[in-house]
Amino acid sequence: MSSEYLFAHKHILGLDHLSVPDIELILNTAESFKEISARAIKKVPVLRGKTVVTLFFEPSTRTRLSFDIAAKRMSADTFSITASTSSTTKGETLADTARNIEAMMPDILIMRHPSSGACHYLAKHIRTSVINAGDGTHEHPSQGLLDLMTVKEHKGEISGLKIAIIGDISHSRVAHSDIIGFSKMGANVFVSGPATLIPKKIEKLGATVCGTIEEAVRNADVVMPLRIQTERQNDPLIPSLREYASFFGINRQVLQAAKPGALLMHPGPINRGVELAPDVADSAQSVILDQVTNGVAIRMALMYLVLGGK
Description:
This protein is of the alpha/beta class. It has two domains: about 20-140 and about 295-305, Aspartate/ornithine carbamoyltransferase (Rossmann fold, 3-Layer(aba) Sandwich), CATH 3.40.50; about 140-290, 3-Layer(aba) Sandwich (Rossmann fold). The chain is built from eleven helices and nine strands. Helix 2 links the parallel strand 1 and strand 2 (about 75-80). The longest helix has 19 residues, at about 290-305.
């Protein structure tokens, strides 16, 4: 890819609208930014004078803090708004909230929202750059990108790898972004989980549905269990967490079916003893904390690029 490649996106709403060259540029830019976090003084002036607002309507630890740290490491001014402190609690619409924020001239608005498509809606109503920090069950693009970065960092390449994603595929925006991103970059994505948690037509995103967890994990280069998102389920879709752990939990025995040296990943938060055994979560194969570290670099790259960085 030419060093003169132009990143033409004002918003980051999902991986579906990013091309392979776009993703490669993001990953390369993130790799160059990652070194900043290892310095004694973790700050560069590339976004000095810029304003970043985070607007989160759902709980978050990693994503919200990661965006905040990323912005501060580039010397941006950051401001945080939560659902409980926003005027939406008084009946104000999302669009009116965003327009009022925009009137204060921020440069980037980062939003997490429980409704799928909320960030796309916002991007149509304001001129400020919008970065999707997770919208309903739709996408979580920065998580998908940091997962790509982590795999590339450890495996050297992504094309040709087998990626196994296990668990609540239906309600996981991370799964959707990962399926799109890994497929675009040439990997083969296999998913497995209870039939009630596998969405119809998931194959259209690029995934192969496996009837058993053993089939999905066999000879996999990457194994990624997902949390059961009970908060997004109106009715219970599995008999119990104990039964789920028995049939779909990742433990040492299950992981042995993967390739030697396979990576164990998880987007967090982990429910230890449910989708992932504690000893496996803390094993040498786990790159979960590497994902968190790379999240800061990816989010630095996204903010830098949407504001015209080269």
